[in-house]
Amino acid sequence: MAQPSTRQELITYCKRQLGAPVLEINVADEQIDDLVDDAIQYFHERHFDGVIQTFLHYKITEDDINRGKGPGTSGVTGITTTTVSHTVGETTSFSFTENGNYLQIPPAVIGVNKIFRFDGSNTVTNNMFSVKYQLFLNDIYGLGSTEILSYAMTKRYLEDLDFALNTEKRIRFNQRQDRLYLDIDWGSVKKDEYLILDCYRTIDPSDYSRVYNDSFLKRYLTALIKRQWGQNLIKFQGVKLPGGTELNGRQIYDDGMRDLEIRMYGVEVHYMPRKYMTEKTLMREVVESKFDDAYPIEAYVESFDGYGDNPTLLSKFGIQQTNEITLIISKERFENYISPLMKNESNVKLSTRPKEGDLIYFPLGDRLFEIKYVEHERPFYQLQKNYVYELRCELFRIEDEVIDTGVDEIDDTLEGIEGADGDIIFQGVGLQKFTLVGTATSATAVTTVVDGAVRFIDITNRGSGYLARPRVAISSAPAGGVTGIASAFMLGNIVVCTGSAQPNSNQLVVQSAPLVNPGSGYTVAPKVQFFTNNTDGKGTGAAGTSVITNHGAIGIVTVTGGGSGYTTAPTITFTGLSTVSAAATAIVSAAGTISAIYITNAGAGYTEPPTISVAVPGSSSSGNFSFNETITGGTSGATAKVRKWNAETVELDVYDVDGIFLRGETITGSSSSATSIIRVIDDGPGETGYEDNDGFETEADEILDFSEANPFGTP
């Protein structure tokens, strides 16, 4: 019963909306039947869901041809003669004839767009020897080399020629007569040819029961019954019933009339209540809010000052947009439909009526307006009853609001909303900026072969207490040789197994000492020492020993091309004849390139420089992320909403972050299916507006003691 599927269920539903069975609806069944017919008729004639475009075919008969021929033609039937007389000095008779050149159309058809003839006689358009057919045949396959403009102009010319030479499109249709007049040469029409009618036909509720559940039809019929109820009770105005109850038919009638006006001539908008999420303020100067609900409601456009020409206003705050619109909504409709849905929301303030600061989505123009003033007293002073709310709205300029209603046509609008700073921007809570992997390319490097190089450094003691990377010192090479150079790799938050105490969270130990330059000319293994770089001398105990190779080690590895798109250190492979293969590790810069390659094992037995292969990056970006879609981390499972995407800089701003995204993981867009790898994560992409509030509040507390009831009075 909540979703009516029959005529009677629709009537019962509308009565319940008016208070039945608790209240007696003083409208006769005969009156309601009339109102249902009126509502369905209006639904068919005015609502886009009340009709359907369809194609009907009709076979022409000999009788149709005879009726269509003009007067004076032999064998013509269906000519109607009308004679009138008038006295102008003498009585004169006037005779008129009307041709029967029409087809009787089914009553369900309410409009005819055009007709098509399937007769094979149209030398311009229909047969294989026609100009249009040959144009298609010769040019359609060559559009890659043919200018589309020339093709379009030629096609337009043929359509104009077709209109001028062919009369089947010259039609007249009147719904009340159910007649389709065809002003054509019926002598050229042949029996048993077909006419195809492009027309609109009403949807019969008896065949398609879902019509009875149409939201417009239900509301419209309810308003009709309400108006009739009020009209029936007007004659009892002022009559008091037992107990002192007075029937107020005028009020019911006016309520119904206003509802009808709004539903008949209004526009369906969406009311979006503002939800206050965070109030990190001293005196409510900064309030973070969210719009995640949108309720459809009918609104009458009272005025639209400046709506069309984008006027501006020069004020002390700069140039401001002044697009304004005034809307009228039904008070009863808001209180009965929207208020009950908002009253249980803890972060919605004043749910009983529209309030300033809430938003209205206006579909004509695809715009958002902010309610600046709600007038609830101006109309109907004389009746001591307010039937409507007047909403004075201005074009919305987004600042710190989060808008995620789930209605695509509303959420997609935000992509073009102007922010308070003039930029096209969308702000919200939980902001992060991701720098993603763009077009990825592999890095390249080369090396040489040397003798007597340091093959690797073995860490014998990780040390403890380091606050910075220590300096690695290698003993000088013999005369004519090259001294090796190494760099310490550090590690934090580990359990030291060499006897040293476990470091604190901010202290480091030596993990390894890869070689920047393995040196050359060594005959014995050089000594290795670690010197702290801290001025306070913190960090001690690290030690290591070196191992050399006397023949065919790799020399310095030089990066010839840094590549792009790297998020983690790639695998380094050395290809060449050797007794001990070399190994190295790559250093990835913040820009996603390979900045250096450090040697972890110089190898041995090389007779010529090996080929160095750097593994390709994980993947490149694919596709473009869509505004306000959800992205998901492939490894972490974290989610966020897309705030802004710059394909050129591969920077992605997100908001409403749920979880912790990981550097190097692949993210995927929910609607665009775009994918990319996170290279850099920035947790503070912009100012939120709240950073200084706590400081202001602390300083204010030093001046005024707000713990007192009256900090400005006498203690």
Describe the protein:
The protein is of the alpha+beta class. The chain folds into five domains: 7-47 and 214-260; 60-106 and 118-189, no CATH class; 266-427, no CATH class; 433-439 and 619-682, no CATH class; 444-614, no CATH class. Strands 9-12-15-18-17-16 form a six-stranded antiparallel β-barrel. Helix 6 packs antiparallel against helix 7 (249-265). The radius of gyration is 42 Å and the shape is elongated. The model is unreliable at 120-126, 312-320, 416-429, 499-503 and 685-690 (pLDDT under 50).
Low-confidence stretches: 120-126, 312-320, 416-429, 499-503, 685-690
Mean pLDDT over all positions = 78
% residues in beta strands: 25-35%
Counting DSSP E segments of at least 2 residues, the number of strands comes to: 41
Structural domains: how many: 5
Integer-rounded radius of gyration: 42 Å
**How many separate helices?**
10
The largest sheet, given as strand count, sense and whether it forms a barrel, is: 6 strands, antiparallel, barrel
In angstroms, what separates the terminal alpha carbons? 68 Å
Helix content range: 10-25%
- Give the overall shape, derived from the CA principal axes: elongated
Strand order of the largest sheet: 9-12-15-18-17-16
Structural class: alpha+beta
